[in-house]
Amino acid sequence: MTVVASKKKFDELVSNGKKAYLTNNFEEAVSCLSEACTLGGNLFGDLSPESFEALLYYGQSLTEVFRLQQEPVNLGGKMEGEPAEAEQKEAEKPTEPAAENETPVGEEKRAEEMEVPADAEKSTEAAENEETGAEASDEDEEMQEDSEEAPSDALLAFETLEVCRKICQNQLESAPRDEKWLSNKADVMLALCESAIVDGRPDQAREAIAECIETLKSMPNATLRRLSEAHMYCARACMAADAFSDAAIAYKNAHDTLWEYRRDMETIGGSLKERNELTKLMRSIRERMEDAERSEESFAEAKEELAAKFVLPASTGGETNDITSMIRKSVKRPAEEQAVDNVKKAKPGEAEEAEAKKVDA
Fold first, then answer.
1. H or E element: which one contains 75?
2. CA 62 to CA 85: how far, in whole Å?
3. Count of CB atoms within 10 A of residue 317's CB?
4. What is the pTM of this model?
5. Which of 242, 293, 331, 343 is deepest in the core (most CB within 10 A)?
């Protein structure tokens, strides 16, 4: 294939992949864009700006495929793992009467004559089953090895989007204020945030969206609506990390940014339909903000209750520093008891002398 034909093929694959992504046909998008990325790497290089669009949509498509993989599978109205309807009916069939299982005498005799061939047939069948089981186990081992070697869609999406990020950085090194590549970088960081949220990495998602917001604020022509969207992503990342207080702040930032955008629309005479849509969106954001605030209060109460379980109860009586009452004091015994003990402890001769002294006294 010539270079011209390869470039034409590359453009077709990117176009088809984008179209599939925008119509939620993510499997087809991954197929087209994967081939486009490979072809673009051969044509332009791994970190070429020409491959940026294909890589970005490829990473986003992989994220969506991974998201779908995490959802429970619904097979014909029943969840995966439930018994099939035919199997359930078979299990519910009543057992046949015992009379139907009785065998006539003639048939019993023929069955006895066939016992040896039947045993041979069973042994042959068992050997075939062993061979089939061995082949199946080999196939399972090969599939397991392949699954261990192949990276997950989430990891592949993250690595692909990191390549996009590197391309943006390379372009911004020579032109730091380039509006196009600043916008591209913001898109990449937003996609990285979404990928991290789906993969259960909220801390990385928060880092990515913070860089996205910083990039948008550095752009002179960044729209307020786009900045509000980034704040919404930030709130989602915070909610995923159980940082409800930070999420409430992010929702407030999104709301205030949209309010400013709506005010500008009124100034310039924007469409009434869009302004009404913004009003509904702002109301929804306020509800989410209030929900995050309630979650923070519940979370704080739960932490206090948990901490209270580990606090030792305070002493209710007496001086804690005075330990003299805890020391066991010796008890004085009567003189007679002490004398008897002395006699018991004394040697035989000494005992007689002690008794004589007692009589003299």
1. strand 74-75
2. 35
3. 5
4. 0.67
5. 293
Q: How far is CA 357 from CA 110, 343, 351, 354, in A?
A: 116, 12, 10, 5
Residue-by-residue DSSP string for 38-62? HHHHHHH-TT-GGGHHHHHHHHHHH
SS3 content of the chain, % helix, strand, coil (to 5): 80, 0, 20
Residue 22: CB atoms within 10 Å: 10
Summarised one tens digit per residue, pLDDT across range 198-208 is 999 999 999 99
Whether residue 214 contacts residue 247, with contact meaning beta carbons closer than 8 Å, is answered with no
Give the bridge partners for 78, in sequence order: 75
Q: CA 303, 306, 308 angle in degrees (round to 5)?
A: 110
Strand partners, 75: 78
Cα separation, 348 vs 361, in Å, equals 20
The Cα 48–Cα 251 span in angstroms is: 37
Q: Give Cα separations from 231 to 71, 181, 193, 208 (angstroms).
A: 26, 20, 12, 12
Q: For residue range 2-41, list pLDDT tens digits in order.
A: 999 999 999 999 999 999 999 999 999 999 999 999 999 9
161: nearest Cα among 191, 139, 127: 191
C-alpha pair distances (Å), 225 with each of 68, 254, 281 = 28, 9, 11
Is 70 within 8 Å of 42 (Cβ atoms)? no
Residue with tokens 């010796």: 330
Residue 283 predicted with pLDDT over 70: yes
Helices (H), 45-198: 52-70, 85-92, 105-113, 115-149, 153-174, 179-198
The Cα 100–Cα 111 span in angstroms is: 17
When computed from its CA atoms, the radius of gyration of the chain, rounded to whole angstroms, is: 41
In terms of residues, how long is the chain? 361
